[in-house]
Design goal:
about 65% helix, three-stranded antiparallel β-sheet, mainly alpha, Arc Repressor Mutant, subunit A, globular
């Protein structure tokens, strides 16, 4: 049977429409928060900083894997974060050839400032909604969070 004759599952138009609307809304909200936040850290640097804060200390290879980038890309990101004094590189006590990355105190302060500012931006947007709309979002949060879980 050729590929054009292989039966395809029926298209769920409602699911496709919901997926499109969710993707656009989440993407636009994220972009709006980033723009309104005026952050001076590029997205990958901020993400790497957050990952180190959450899971650190981490080796470069583990951080690259968690961020889904190559080791050379992560090396450049860490170089920029290191230049700003936001991370600390220390010898891995398990492997003298390895280096562990942790947040510096300045990195913790910077990350906390960004998180606080972005949270305030979202809170202001939520504050523009009526109580019923906020309740719908509150009820949807577990489902939205479940979308982030790996299969």
């Amino acid at each position: 049977m050729t590929a054009e004759h292989v039966p395809q599952p029926p298209v769920d138009h409602l699911l496709t429409e919901e997926a499109t609307r969710l993707r656009l809304a989440v993407g636009r909200l994220h972009r709006r928060i980033r723009i309104d936040g005026g952050d001076s850290l590029p997205p990958l640097q901020l993400s790497a900083l957050s990952t180190v804060a959450l899971h650190g200390p981490l080796r470069l290879s583990e951080l690259a894997r968690r961020e889904a980038v190559t080791a050379p890309t992560m090396s450049r990101v860490l170089g920029a974060l290191d230049d700003q004094g936001l991370v600390v590189r220390a010898s891995d006590p398990q492997d003298a050839r390895g280096v562990l990355i942790t947040l510096s105190s300045a990195g913790r302060v910077r990350l906390d400032e960004i998180v606080t500012h972005r949270t305030a931006l979202v809170a202001r947007r939520l504050g523009r909604l009526d109580a019923a709309q906020r309740e719908v979002i509150r009820a949807a949060l577990p489902a939205i969070e479940a979308l982030l879980e790996e299969e």
